[in-house]
Write a structure and sequence with these properties.
By secondary structure, the protein is α+β, with helices and mostly antiparallel strands. Among the domains are: 111-229, 2-Layer Sandwich (Uridine Diphospho-n-acetylenolpyruvylglucosamine Reductase, domain 3), CATH 3.30.465; 233-351, Alpha-Beta Plaits (2-Layer Sandwich), CATH 3.30.70; 359-445, Alpha-Beta Plaits. Helix content is 35%, strand content 20%. The chain is built from 16 helices and 19 strands. A hairpin with a 4-residue loop joins β18 and β19 (403-409). The two termini are 20 Å apart. The mean pLDDT is 95.
C-alpha cells in the first residue's frame, strides 16, 4: 500500500452467520473463501497494492446484489465493489484492514438488448468492454469507449470510474455514453433508472452521481449505453512532428480539414515509443524518424468510401502535405491496411504494459486546457529534472482532450524504494503546476486510494464538504467502498 495513512473504515467481521446468509443468496459457486482464490481480487493489476477480504462474493444478477448489500448493510459490513480490476488508482482494491466482502460483478455479463434503430444497448455491469464493442459492430453500430484494458475491463467499472480513453476527443468520457443506469444503493434498495431517453428533465439527474463515484455511493448493475453509426472509412497516421506546440496546431487545423471527423489525436514521445518497441513483442516502428515527438492521428467517417470520391485517406494525405509545408510535420505514414493501423494503436495502448517491464516509475494523469499542454510539458519536465536530474521523462496522452499521462521512469539502476523517496516532492511540483494552470490532478484515472490526500490538498473545502454530504446521505454507515476518494 502507498504511504497514505489508512482511513478509518468499518471493521465489522463476516461472522459464520453472515457467511451462511451470503451462501444462501449466491450459492457456493458465488463465494470464494480460500486465500489463493481471493488473491487476484485483492491485488491490483500493477501488483503494487494488496488488500484483504473475508470473502469474494460473485452474484449472478441484480436481485442477488441487492440481497447481499442489504445483508451487509444490516450487519455494518464493508463492501468493495469490483469490475475487471484494471484501475490505476487502487479504487477497486481493499485496504489491508478491510474485514468485509469484495463484491465482484464478473458473473453479470449479459447483453440484455441491442436497439440498433434507437442507437442504444442495455447491458449488465460485468460485460467486458471489448465484447460490447464487438456486439455493437455486429449490429453495424459503434460503441466508442476504447482503452488499453478493453479486453478485460468491465463496463460497470468503466462507468464507476468515468473512464476516458482514446475517443474522448470526439465522443466524451464514459458518462457521456450513458442514457440510463440501474444501481443498488448502500441499503440494498434498487434504483431503476434504465431509461433510453436522450431528453429527461425531471429533477436531479441521478445517474451522474454514480458515474465517477468509484463505487462509494452504490453498485452499478446495469446500463443503457449510447451507440453511434459504425465507422466505414478510417484513416490512421503516425506523424513525426516538430514539438508539442506543433501537435496542438495540427489538431486545431485537422477538425476543419477532416470535416469534423477527427476521432483520436494521441501524443507520443520517442522515449515512450522506444520503450514499447523494447518490451512488447510484435510491435514495429511505423516511422524511423529522428525526432523526439510523434502524433497518432485518426479520422473516421460513417460514410463508406465511394469510387471517384475523395475519402479519409486522400483528405488526410493532402492535409499532411500542407502540415509538412508549414513545418509542423517532419515525416508521416498513413496505414495502408488494418494491420499497419493496428500496429500504430498497439504501440500507444501498450505503454502501461511496457512501463511495468521497464522498471519502477512515477505517473501523473493530468489535464490542462489544450493550448497550455506545450507549456505544461516543458515546465513539468524541468521541475522533475531539477529534483532528480537522472529521471527519465516519457510524456504521452490524449492531447485532443487536454489529458497528458505525465510519466517518468526511474533512473537506470534505481530501485523502487529509492525512487519513492523522491515521489512526494516531484508529485507536489507537478500537481502545483497543474493547479497553477487551472487543470486537474486526475483527468481520467480517478482518485481511489492513491490520490486521497492529493484531492484533499487541491480541492476546495466547499467541494470536499459537498462530496462528504452526498456520501453520508447515501451511505450513512460508510460501508460502500470505504476509504476511497474521501476521508470522512
Amino acid at each position: 500500500m502507498p504511504d497514505t495513512a489508512i482511513p478509518v473504515i468499518p471493521t465489522v467481521p463476516v461472522t459464520p452467520a453472515v457467511l451462511d446468509g451470503l451462501r444462501a443468496i449466491v450459492g457456493e459457486r458465488g463465494l470464494i473463501l480460500d486465500d489463493h482464490g481471493k488473491q487476484p481480487f485483492v491485488t491490483d493489476w500493477r501488483g503494487s497494492l494488496v488488500g484483504s477480504a473475508a470473502v469474494v462474493v460473485r452474484p449472478a444478477n441484480t436481485d442477488e446484489v441487492s440481497k447481499v448489500v442489504k445483508l451487509c448493510f444490516d450487519n455494518g459490513i464493508a463492501i468493495v465493489p469490483q469490475g475487471g480490476n484494471t484501475g490505476l488508482m487502487g479504487g477497486a482494491t481493499p485496504w489491508p484492514t478491510h474485514s468485509g466482502i469484495l463484491l465482484s460483478l464478473g458473473r453479470m455479463n449479459h447483453v440484455i438488448e441491442v436497439d440498433p434503430v434507437g442507437y442504444s444497448m442495455t447491458v449488465e455491469a460485468g460485460c467486458i468492454l471489448q465484447i460490447l464493442q464487438e456486439t455493437a459492430a455486429s449490429h453495424d453500430r459503434f460503441f466508442p469507449l476504447s482503452l488499453g484494458a478493453q479486453g478485460s475491463c468491465m463496463i460497470g467499472g468503466n462507468l464507476s470510474t468515468n473512464a476516458g480513453g482514446v475517443q474522448v476527443l470526439r465522443y466524451g468520457n464514459a458518462r457521456n455514453l450513458v442514457l440510463g443506469l440501474e444501481v443498488v444503493l448502500p441499503n440494498g434498495n434498487v434504483w431503476n433508472g434504465l431509461r433510453s431517453l436522450k431528453k429527461d428533465n425531471t429533477g436531479y439527474d441521478l445517474k451522474h452521481l454514480f458515474m465517477g463515484a468509484e463505487g462509494t455511493l452504490g453498485v452499478i448493475t446495469k446500463a443503457v449505453l449510447k451507440l453511434w453509426p459504425a465507422p466505414k472509412d478510417v484513416a490512421t497516421a503516425w506523424l513525426a512532428i516538430r514539438d508539442p506546440q506543433a501537435a496542438i496546431e495540427i489538431l486545431s487545423e485537422a477538425h476543419a480539414a477532416s470535416e469534423d471527423n477527427v476521432g483520436s489525436c494521441e501524443l507520443m514521445s520517442r522515449a515512450a515509443t522506444e520503450m514499447v518497441l523494447r518490451h512488447v513483442p510484435g510491435t514495429q516502428d511505423p516511422l524511423k524518424a529522428d525526432t523526439p515527438w510523434f502524433l497518432l492521428l485518426e479520422w473516421s467517417s460513417s460514410r463508406p468510401k465511394a469510387d471517384g470520391v475523395e475519402g479519409m485517406s486522400e483528405k488526410m494525405e493532402q492535409f499532411l502535405a500542407d502540415q509538412m509545408e508549414a513545418g509542423r510535420v517532419l515525416d508521416a505514414v498513413i496505414g495502408q491496411n488494418e494491420g499497419q493501423a493496428r500496429n500504430m494503436w498497439r504501440i500507444r495502448e501498450a505503454v502501461a504494459e511496457a512501463s511495468r517491464a521497464e522498471g519502477p516509475g512515477l505517473s501523473y494523469d493530468i489535464s490542462v486546457s489544450i493550448s497550455r499542454i506545450p507549456g505544461f510539458i516543458d515546465k513539468g519536465i524541468k521541475a522533475a529534472l531539477d529534483i532528480l536530474p537522472s529521471i527519465r521523462p516519457y510524456p504521452l496522452g490524449h492531447i485532443g482532450d487536454g489529458n497528458i499521462h505525465f510519466s517518468f521512469m526511474g533512473p537506470k539502476g534505481m530501485d523502487r524504494e529509492t525512487l519513492q523517496q523522491y515521489s512526494p516532492v516531484i508529485t507536489r511540483a507537478v500537481n502545483d503546476l497543474v493547479r497553477d494552470m487551472a487543470g486537474s490532478i486526475s483527468a481520467e484515472h480517478g482518485i481511489g486510494i492513491d490520490k486521497i490526500d492529493e484531492l484533499a490538498h487541491y480541492r476546495s473545502k466547499i467541494e470536499l464538504d459537498t462530496m462528504r454530504s452526498l456520501k453520508r446521505a447515501l451511505d450513512p454507515k460508510n460501508i460502500m467502498n470505504p476509504g476511497k476518494i474521501l476521508r470522512l
